[in-house]
Design brief:
The structure holds 2 protein chains of 2 kinds.
Chain A (H helix, E strand, L loop, with lengths): L3 E4 L2 E4 L5 E7 L7 E6 L6 E5 L3 E2 L7 E6 L2 E6 L9 E6 L11 E5 L1
Parallel strand pairs in A: 2-10
Antiparallel strand pairs in A: 1-3, 3-8, 4-5, 4-9, 5-6, 7-8, 9-10
Chain B lengths: L3 E3 L3 E3 L5 E7 L1 H5 L2 E7 L5 E8 L4 E4 L8 E5 L4 E6 L8 E9 L5 E5 L3 E5 L2
Parallel strand pairs in B: 2-11
Antiparallel strand pairs in B: 1-3, 3-8, 4-5, 4-9, 5-6, 7-8, 9-10, 9-11
Classes of the chains: A mainly beta, B mainly beta.
């Protein structure tokens, strides 16, 4: 199975901060990498697909980048509604594994 | 608009069987992968498996192979997740999702989740 390692596991930030979350794949997954946001009691929501494509309706402050097997999700200016847990997922090979999640909390 | 509507919460005893459902809308259901994701209380997302309702091609995570069965009935655009003998450790929220796209499939639509509680 392909392992997806996210870092950090949690972070504290203030409204307006620039936030970056990293996800590393255990082997090459091309750009088959998605990012999701999950709020308490809700289903995950797709933010970014194919490493850097913004899902329709998602604010442009969210962006994704790939460098080899390292992937980053950046929130350019954190908003109050962005406090949530973020997950990466590879869909290159089954099982389509998720990272362990990064919790973004209010500082 | 695409919608996935899951069946309601279940409370079961260990050893009982269970089948939960995920009803989707129209052609987008039949021609895309439908996946199941487990989320245990306070934990992260775990990919269980996927099914392509058009031909019932099914793939399982090794962690869930033999523990659950994924199926679909394309005539009623519904996917299923079933257990033959539940354990307390199956207590979790279960989500279905449509995985769209041949290149980098992504979970673009999700069901609301089905909470399964297994307790004696």
């Amino acid at each position: 199975d392909i392992q997806m390692t996210q870092s950090p596991s949690s972070l504290s930030a203030s409204v307006g901060d620039r936030v970056t979350i990293t996800c590393r794949a255990s082997q090459s997954i091309s750009s088959y990498l998605n990012w999701y946001q999950q709020k308490p009691g809700k289903a995950p929501k797709l933010l970014i697909y194919a490493a850097s494509s913004l899902q329709s309706g998602v604010p442009s402050r969210f962006s994704g980048f790939r460098s080899g097997t390292d992937f980053t999700l950046t929130i350019s200016s954190l908003q109050p509604e962005d406090f949530a847990i973020y997950y990466c997922q590879q869909t290159y090979n089954t099982p389509w594994t998720f990272g362990q999640g990064t919790k973004v909390e209010i500082k | 608009e695409v919608q996935l509507v899951q069946s309601g919460a279940e409370v079961k005893k260990p050893g009982e069987s269970l089948k939960i459902s995920c009803k989707g809308s129209g052609n987008s259901f039949t021609n895309n992968w439908i996946g199941w994701v487990r989320q245990m209380p306070g934990k992260g997302l775990e990919w269980m498996g996927i099914i392509y309702p058009g031909d019932s091609d099914t793939r399982y995570s090794p962690s869930f192979q033999g523990q659950v069965t994924i199926s679909a009935d394309k005539s009623i655009t519904t996917a299923y997740l079933q257990w033959s003998s539940l354990k307390a450790s199956d207590t979790a929220m279960y989500y279905c999702a449509r995985f769209f796209g041949d290149y980098a499939p992504r979970g673009d639509y999700w069901g609301q989740g089905t909470l399964v509680t297994v307790s004696s």
